[in-house]
Amino acid sequence: MNFQTLKKAIGDWLSLNLGEAHILRLSFSSDFVSGNSISGSVNIVSFSTISFTTDHATTMTLLKQSIQNLESVLMVKSVDSRTIDVYGKNPGVTLTALISITGGVSQATITQTTQLSPEAVTIIYENSQVLSEKAPQQPYPYCTFGFGPITPVGTGRLDSFDEETNLALQEQNLVVTIFINYFGDYAPFKILKAFRSLITQETSDLFYQNKLSIQTKQSIRDLTGLLETQFEPRARFEFQVGFMEAWTEDIGTIERATFHETIENVAGEEFNLDIEITTGA
Hints:
CATH class of the largest domain: Alpha Beta
Low-confidence stretches: none
Largest sheet: 6 strands, mixed
Structural class: alpha+beta
Number of domains: 2
Distance between the termini: 39 Å
CATH architecture of the largest domain: 2-Layer Sandwich
Strand content: over 45%
């Protein structure tokens, strides 16, 4: 496992699961009517133009789906027959919608209001120079992460051996403890989003893509005012991830090899067969 790959995987996961994504409410002043055509964009990316279809409700459903198909949008929910909420996908990113309604005998006007303001959380690796003693404290909110020692689990195994080069591919299961610290108001509540995400399929898929698996996790601890002389809102949790480390090395001269096998005779009786081969002096 490349250490930079591990750092990036944890950083990407935290960036998606800390902070708040923008929720933008779009309110239409009247129903859509025959002949209306609705076009526009969210964050400069155009959604598919919608033409009035059957009735207002059907047209609104088509509009919701068209907006939801955009990369910057997580989902679109109906509030009432003329109002929808657009949920941003990425924390800290402001959604800006430009919508135009043309055609028909009348065109609804659109009012945009923010239901939840976007909030970005700075993610910092704990060994970064940003956290040096001489550096100023980061503005809230921010999150740090770091790693404990990498430890082997069980015994390694010989995956393959090349007789001509004398090189062997070996594998070992390893685990590493990851420490997550959140600094800012309502720290135990804010860090809960990342903590809960560890059981979601999306997070499992993200870790799997980086050949990591979530092993165990510890409860969130509110450390506000406990570790610093100055009052500071802070919460922390730890969890373990496992991965497989593979490497190639010259195993030198093989002096002895032991084979264990179970064989069965025609009567169905099983026998354990142990063979040991030792090279001559």
